[in-house]
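Title: Comparing notes on inverse folding

I've been comparing how different people in this forum approach sequence design from structure. To keep things fair, I'm posting one structure and asking everyone to reply with a full sequence. Here's the target:
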């Protein structure tokens, strides 16, 4: 029969699915309730046709999300009870050997097999749902090329760091996890620098803002906002999707603001300034560094748990691994099951993220105006068909950004105080 640990994890899978589906149903109910006409608060910028399309988009994505969640829950449960993983691990070791490099390769290949199960859903999401609502701009060929590149990147970066972790595990003994954490943290920080420079360009063209009025006005704003390194790049997001976005990457000397080309097409210069000011706000308020520290803390906890589990034969045997199988089974089991625990912490990290969004909005309202930021956000909601009427509990749990209404209310309030 199944071990107590597997039964416990099966219960967690069921609980997570049940709770998450209940939240989705609650949210769908709320969206449907407001679907007959455009709510008063949005009439100033939202026409009935777009609103209806937005409702349909939210409902379709929600239903799809529930099916996807059911599937991934089933896959995880099946993988746990079938003994597939110990079988694959043994096979990998038999074929490639037991060196740190061979174990790292085995671990990555197990990860690749596990990720194949979600591919049909990725395809459906992009080529059926996004296509239907006019967002998909990518071809199937581009999608395949992306997947192959992702795979190559995960091998080039993944094998060395995995090999290092396995080596630390085998060499150091009891305190391996502290060194493992240190190595992984260093790798993460290196990635924050490497990613925008070497990885993002594999997938997208990133170019400096073209010379002209817009560049002058945005750079003036960056000056006023105290964003001294002033790297503002434009990314060709339009080759995959017409969704638009802007984001901040890197830290310290490596900081960069990236604007999607779709954003440049959708917003006027005033609105773009407000969006840029919001991103500068994230930088000035130290959000990036705080988020990095937060995730390092999380990682430390995970390594401590792995340190504990690695001493327990029970943990290995519960999943059907031999107790002397080393680091790979620990890391693999912890990574595929981490979501079962982490899911319940999402409202915490999202609450923190929403706090930062309010702060960045207040910064932007001061540097530009609440009016131009609100106009930018309204346009982006409209263009991206964002859900305007989420259920309160749903947005508290899942939203990394406050809702449009919450943001507008807060930014006009903060402007009054300036
Ligand atoms: Zn933000």
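Reply #1:
Here's my take.
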């Amino acid at each position: 029969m199944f071990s107590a640990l597997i039964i416990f994890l099966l219960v967690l899978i069921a609980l997570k699915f049940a709770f998450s589906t209940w939240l989705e149903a609650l949210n769908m109910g709320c969206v449907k309730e407001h679907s007959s006409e455009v709510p008063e608060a949005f009439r100033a910028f939202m026409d009935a046709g777009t609103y209806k399309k937005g409702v349909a988009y939210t409902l379709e994505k929600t239903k799809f999300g529930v099916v996807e969640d059911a599937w991934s829950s089933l896959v995880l449960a099946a993988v746990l009870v079938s003994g597939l993983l110990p079988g694959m691990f043994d096979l990998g070791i038999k074929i490639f050997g037991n060196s740190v490099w061979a174990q790292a390769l085995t671990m990555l290949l197990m990860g690749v097999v596990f990720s194949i199960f979600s591919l049909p859903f990725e395809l459906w999401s992009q080529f059926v749902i996004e296509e239907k609502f006019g967002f998909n701009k990518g071809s199937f060929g581009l999608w395949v090329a992306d997947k192959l590149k992702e795979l190559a990147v995960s091998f080039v970066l993944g094998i060395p760091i995995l090999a290092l972790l396995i080596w630390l595990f085998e060499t150091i003994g009891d305190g391996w996890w502290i060194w493992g954490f240190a190595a992984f943290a260093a790798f993460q920080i290196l990635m924050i620098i490497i990613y925008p420079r070497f990885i993002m360009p594999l997938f997208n063209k990133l170019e400096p803002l073209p010379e002209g009025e817009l560049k002058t006005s945005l750079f003036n704003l960056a000056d006023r906002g105290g964003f001294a390194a002033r790297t503002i790049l434009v990314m060709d997001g339009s080759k995959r999707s017409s969704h638009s976005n802007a984001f901040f990457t890197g830290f310290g000397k490596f900081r960069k603001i990236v604007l999607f080309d779709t954003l440049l097409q959708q917003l006027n210069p005033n609105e773009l300034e407000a969006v840029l000011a919001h991103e500068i706000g994230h930088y000035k308020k130290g959000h990036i560094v705080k988020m990095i520290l937060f995730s390092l803390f999380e990682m430390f906890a995970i390594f401590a748990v792995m340190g504990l589990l690695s001493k327990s034969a029970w943990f290995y045997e519960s999943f059907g691994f031999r107790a002397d199988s080393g680091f790979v089974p620990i890391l693999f089991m912890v990574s595929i099951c981490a979501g079962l625990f982490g899911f319940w912490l999402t409202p915490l990290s999202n609450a923190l993220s929403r706090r930062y969004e309010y702060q960045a909005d207040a910064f932007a309202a001061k540097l530009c105006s609440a009016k131009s930021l609100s106009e930018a956000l309204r346009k982006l909601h409209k263009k991206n068909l964002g859900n305007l009427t989420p259920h309160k509990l749903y947005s508290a749990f899942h939203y990394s950004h406050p809702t449009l209404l919450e943001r507008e209310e807060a930014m006009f309030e903060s402007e009054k105080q300036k």
